[in-house]
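Attaching the record inline, Q. Sequence:
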Amino acid sequence: MSRPILPPRTEEIIDEDKFPTLNWLSFFEQLASGDTGTAFTPTFVGLTEVGVATKTGQFWRLSSRIAYYRMIITPTTSTSATLGTTYCNNFPLVITQAGVCFSLSGFTAAVSGVTASDKRIYTSAWTTITTPITLTGILEVR
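Structure, as predicted:
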């Protein structure tokens, strides 16, 4: 894994004319084009599947302590999840603080949580969804 890109520490984010400074523009451009992400195959506890759903995941290190992730569950027939008991238990990085998880499917979205104590990314609840579910969020990691 490459070295994390650290933000400029002594520069203002915007100048007196309210434009981003050159150092910060460079920093954000490196974030946007620097990390292509790391793929993993998430496993879920408590996910009810009719057929075997395809599960894919990817995460991006935004800094040495912050990561963004996306997991997609594509059902063969349908999937269902229960709030508080359905979770991903194999995120590749060590989760150090509680975080947020957004569950999205079509025009429907819900929010659930990520726990540092048991290192789980919990899903929201859904019943008999036949379209792909995207789980996305930001975590504090090490």
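Residues 31 and 62 are 7 Å apart (CA to CA). The chain has a mean pLDDT of 85.

More tomorrow.
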